[in-house]
C-alpha cells in the first residue's frame, strides 16, 4: 500500500477529519455517506466490514443505523480516532474496530453480508488482489469508490504526499470481471476536485457544488467526474 508510514502517523490521524471534512469538505463527507447508504440500504441487522475504516466516518454511521459493523484499518492512530468518535453515541447495531491488513483479512470465507472500502483503492498497489480478498469474506455485496483517470484530480495528483492510483471505467470493469463481481450500479460525481472544496468555506463551496451537481448530471460530463461509487454483487 502507498503511503503507509504517512497514513499511520499520529499527527495525520488527529488532523485527518478536520483537514478533509471541515469547511467545504463537509459536502464531500455528506455525499460519500449518502452514496454508501444508497448502495446498501436497508442496513439494519446486516453484517458489514469496512476496509480501511480510518477514523470511523462510515462505521459509526452504519452502526447507528442498526448494522453490525467491523471497521478494519492498518493504523492504530486512526482506529483510536474512530473509537473516540463512537464514544457516547447511541448505536442501534454493534461496532468493533480491529487493526489488520486488507490484503490478508482475518475472517473466514463468506463472513459478512457487505464489504465496503471508501478512499482505499487509490492507494492499492494490487487492486485485483485486494478485491479478491474482499470478495472472499463477503457473501453478497461489495461497495467501493475509485478516483478517475480523466478527472481534474489528475492535474494535482503528483503533489499528493502518497500519490493516487487513478482508474478508467474500463479498468474497473476488467477488475470486476476478473473477480467474478456483477455491477449493480455506478454513480459518478464531483467535476470540481476535492481539493477545491476542502480549501474554501462552506458558504462558497455550496453554490459551486450546486453547479457541479447540475452540470455533472450529463452522461458526457460523467466521463470527467473525480470519483465513481461502485455497487457490486457476487455472481
From TrEMBL:
- Keyword set for this entry? Methyltransferase, Transferase
Q: What is the lineage of its organism?
A: Archaea, Methanobacteriati, Methanobacteriota, Stenosarchaea group, Halobacteria
- Please tell me whether the keyword Methyltransferase is annotated for this protein: yes
Q: Name one GO molecular function term.
A: S-adenosylmethionine-dependent methyltransferase activity
GO biological process terms, alphabetically, are:
methylation
Gene3D superfamilies named in the record:
Vaccinia Virus protein VP39 (3.40.50.150)
> Per its UniProt record, what InterPro entries does this chain match?
Methyltransf_11, SAM-dependent_MTases_sf
Name recorded for this polypeptide: Class I SAM-dependent methyltransferase
Domain named Methyltransferase type is located at 49-139
Pfam families per UniProt: Methyltransf_11 (PF08241)
Amino acid at each position: 500500500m502507498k503511503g503507509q508510514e504517512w497514513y499511520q502517523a499520529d499527527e495525520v490521524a488527529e488532523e485527518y477529519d478536520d483537514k478533509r471534512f471541515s469547511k467545504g469538505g463537509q459536502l464531500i463527507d455528506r455525499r460519500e455517506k449518502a452514496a454508501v447508504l444508497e448502495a446498501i440500504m436497508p442496513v439494519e441487522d446486516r453484517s458489514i466490514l469496512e476496509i480501511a475504516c480510518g477514523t470511523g466516518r462510515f462505521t459509526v454511521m452504519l452502526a447507528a443505523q442498526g448494522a453490525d459493523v467491523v471497521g478494519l484499518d492498518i493504523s492504530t492512530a486512526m482506529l483510536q480516532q474512530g473509537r473516540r468518535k463512537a464514544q457516547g453515541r447511541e448505536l442501534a447495531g454493534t461496532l468493533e474496530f480491529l487493526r489488520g491488513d486488507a490484503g490478508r483479512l482475518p475472517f473466514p470465507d463468506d463472513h459478512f453480508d457487505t464489504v465496503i472500502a471508501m478512499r482505499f483503492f487509490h492507494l492499492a498497489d494490487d487492486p485485483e488482489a485486494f478485491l479478491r480478498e474482499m470478495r472472499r469474506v463477503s457473501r453478497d455485496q461489495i461497495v467501493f469508490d475509485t478516483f478517475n483517470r480523466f478527472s481534474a484530480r489528475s492535474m494535482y495528483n503528483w503533489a499528493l504526499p502518497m500519490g493516487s492510483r487513478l482508474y478508467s471505467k474500463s479498468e474497473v470493469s476488467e477488475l470486476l470481471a476478473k473477480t467474478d463481481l456483477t455491477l449493480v450500479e455506478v454513480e459518478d460525481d464531483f467535476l470540481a476536485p476535492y481539493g477545491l472544496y476542502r480549501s474554501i468555506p462552506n458558504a462558497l463551496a455550496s453554490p459551486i457544488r450546486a453547479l457541479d451537481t447540475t452540470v455533472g448530471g450529463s452522461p458526457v460530463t460523467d466521463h470527467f467526474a473525480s470519483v465513481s461509487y461502485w455497487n457490486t454483487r457476487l455472481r
